[in-house]
Design goal:
It is a single chain. The protein is of the alpha/beta class. It has one domain: NAD(P)-binding Rossmann-like Domain (Rossmann fold), CATH 3.40.50.720. The strands form five sheets. It has a seven-stranded parallel β-sheet, with helices on both faces. Strands 7-6-8 form a three-stranded antiparallel β-sheet, with no helix packed on it. Strands 10-13 form a two-stranded parallel sheet. Strand 1, helix 2 and strand 2 form a beta-alpha-beta unit. Helix 6 runs parallel beside helix 9 and helix 10 crosses helix 12. The radius of gyration is 25 Å and the shape is globular. It starts with a helix and ends with a helix. Bound molecules: nicotinamide-adenine-dinucleotide (NAD) and zinc ion.
């Protein structure tokens, strides 16, 4: 081989590798461009997007550059016949009902993601309106899949579905017996409650137990039509995740609180109910002895997870903070913030079906999404109270009590 041909071959090699490198850079740039471009163009359907959790979720999505369609019928009990002031103008609103197949077909037209939050919300009320709860929550979710099953090409374009499940499906919390480890007692009997014997006992040995965080493995107890309907919604979504091959996350939200929570809907949100009582100069009414604990999670944290779930996760996850807080503590924090002087009315009365304690074990959530700095309870409550100072809070608690007693006799 002559020196000239060696040099020629060498030059060709260099040229070839420069070309390859160029091609690699080009395709990488193209991929990045299409990813970014795609993201800007991705449309998310948020059902219930005019509601409490939904509207915060819409705000976060818009902030991140997603396009958003909202399907919400502005349920009267929640919105009192008015469009809420906080609706994000950059989203598109379709004021129709999830019970309508036509409504679903209309909004599923060009979306890549679905966050399904629309629902009838209220444990007590679901006992006297079971039909409404089952049609909105169960059939409403079934309608989503009915439409997708009828149009498999459309379904193929959906990249992720996120569904609002609820901790209410667990019923009673999880407890630890010194002898039998983690146990799952059923609801307390009316006889026990009539004796004001509030605490749970080990279902095996009858000895006292202490509450521990609930893991996703705990079997559902579904102690109300509401819980049952949320369970249906969750199960349907996971079944169709398999059938349609659409990755799906169902978050079992614990007690969500924060700005935009309805202050006039007596059926939801113990924090909002207490706050609206205090605002009306009336004592918050606490059943049992007030020492029952719940897991309070700030609404913007929940919205954050809804958005993060578009990109990761599959299956059910508890969405709570893993911190138990008693109802007495909640009232005391609210009193501190608002300066209200009224003491809570701890009635020693009880509501059949109420569970004693519940809070989340978040091991599974943290494994998938990493550690998360949840909003401090007091800070979150301050934000709620600040927002509520500009809001009307109709105290509907007493009306709800009359309604409840009429329907449910002990
Ligand atoms: N807030 C909580 O503590 C909590 C806890 C667990 C689960 N969840 C679930 O989270 C979701 C959102 O709850 P939220 O607290 O934001 O309640 P919300 O009442 O503020 O929001 C629900 C929204 O759904 C809409 N809606 C109701 N019925 C509808 C229908 N038939 N068609 C279309 N839209 C309808 C309402 O107008 C409302 O805007 C619900 O599915 C609820 O079951 C909430
Ligand atoms: Zn035991």
């Amino acid at each position: 081989m002559s020196p000239a041909s060696i040099f020629g071959a060498f030059l060709q090699l260099i040229l070839f590798s420069v070309l390859c490198q160029g091609l690699r850079l080009y395709s990488k740039a193209k991929l990045n461009y299409s990813r970014n471009h795609y993201k800007v163009m991705s449309r998310v359907l948020v059902t219930g997007g005019a509601g409490f959790i939904g509207s915060h979720t819409v705000d976060k999505l818009i902030e991140k550059g997603y396009e958003v369609t909202v399907l919400d019928n502005l349920e009267r009990q929640v919105h009192l016949g008015r469009k809420p002031k906080y609706l994000n103008e950059k989203a598109e609103y379709v004021y129709e009902d999830v019970r309508s197949l036509k409504a679903w077909a209309k909004v599923l037209g060009d979306v890549q993601y679905v966050i399904h939050l629309a629902g009838a919300v209220g444990v007590g009320q679901s006992f006297w309106q079971p039909r409404k709860y089952m049609t909105v929550n169960t059939v409403g979710t079934a309608n989503l899949y009915q439409v997708l099953m009828a149009n498999r090409e459309r379904a193929k374009k959906i990249e992720k579905i996120v569904v609002a499940s609820s901790k209410s499906i667990y019923g009673e919390g999880a407890y630890l017996c010194e002898e039998h480890g983690v146990v799952y007692p059923g609801p307390r009997s009316t006889e026990q409650l009539k004796k004001k014997d509030w605490e749970q006992k080990c279902p095996i040995c009858g000895r006292p137990v202490r509450p521990v965080g609930i893991t996703e493995e705990k079997p559902a107890q579904n102690l109300s039509p509401y819980a049952l309907s949320k369970y249906d919604s969750e199960r349907l979504s996971l079944q169709f995740s398999e059938v349609l091959g659409i990755p799906t996350v169902a978050f079992r939200y614990f007690n969500v609180y924060g700005p935009r929570q309805s202050l006039s809907n007596p059926y939801t949100g113990v924090v909002a109910i207490f706050l609206s009582r205090l605002k009306n100069g009336k004592p918050p009414v606490i059943f049992e002895d007030g020492k029952q604990v719940r897991d309070f999670v700030y609404v913007e944290d929940v919205a954050d997870f809804n958005v993060r779930a578009l990109e990761r996760g599959q299956g059910v996850f508890n969405l709570g903070t893993e911190k138990p807080t008693s109802l007495l503590e909640i009232v005391s924090i609210l009193k501190g913030i608002t300066g209200a002087r009224v003491d809570p009315d701890v009635t020693g009365d009880f509501r059949p079906g109420d569970n004693r304690h519940d809070y989340a074990d978040t091991t599974k959530l943290r494994r998938e999404y990493g550690e998360y700095a949840f909003t401090d309870l007091k800070k979150g409550m301050e934000k709620l109270a600040e927002w509520s100072s500009g809001e009307e809070a109709r105290d509907m608690f007493e009306r709800e009590e009359v309604e409840r007693k009429k329907f449910i006799q002990i």
